[in-house]
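The pair is quoted verbatim below.
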Amino acid sequence: MDGDLGDFLRSRRARIRPEEVGLPSHGRRRVPGLRREEVAQLAGVSVDYYIRLEQGRGPGGPSRTKSGGVSDAVLDAVARVLRLDETERAYLHAVARPRRQADRPTRPRVRPAVQLMIDAMDRTPAFVLDRRMTVLAWNPLADAVFGYSGTTARARSIPRHVFLDPAARDFYPDWQAVAAQSVAHLRVLAGHHQDDRELTSLVGELSLKSEDFRRLWADHQVKECAYGVKRLQHPVAGLLVFPYETLTIPGDGDQTLLVYTPEPGSETAERLALLGSWASSPAR
């Protein structure tokens, strides 16, 4: 991930104009944004130190931690200069100081109690994701909306669906926004799980097969998909508009629960009720 660290820092330098941080622009520049020596000056470190950090060469000196990585103080100073938000700051710490994590099962299991919980949600589609954005479990309404039971585990990968399934562009009316959001969240996950071979393989596969993914991945946007509103164009129910929330499952930080809750009395709520009845009909 050393290349990711350098590319991330360079992309963040490029978006800040010198005058925004009280520095003279010195006329026309070859590249936009701050120079490396300017970031170093504002962060209070030597230019050589910052260059080593950006190149992933392991800066040495008094700010180096006992474990051999760059210190929190330096990373926080760089984050302040580059005006990183909370998610970007956490990502910087993760890629600058990767931690070896315990091996996880290739196909993690969802606790039975979690499945019982989402099954009891009879008015909201709900499903569980692993740290690679693959759907592990779902309730009947989520199945009615997304059709998970009729697909393979590989096809239940949200990034694969968004970028490799041609039907996704019709299913998501706001496909461009959904694609950008998916990549930004996937980069967060990749930064925090750098030793996950399947996650690395997923990024490689999408980079090889999708030009849109390659372009978005190169932008180095970092954003968690914690909540929001998503529009879906269902082939049977029509347009569905869902506010959604993402919750970490206690006891397993690598699994998250997504709940799509329609506004009470809305067209989406009515269409979802009809879709649920249709999906559970014996005639179907």
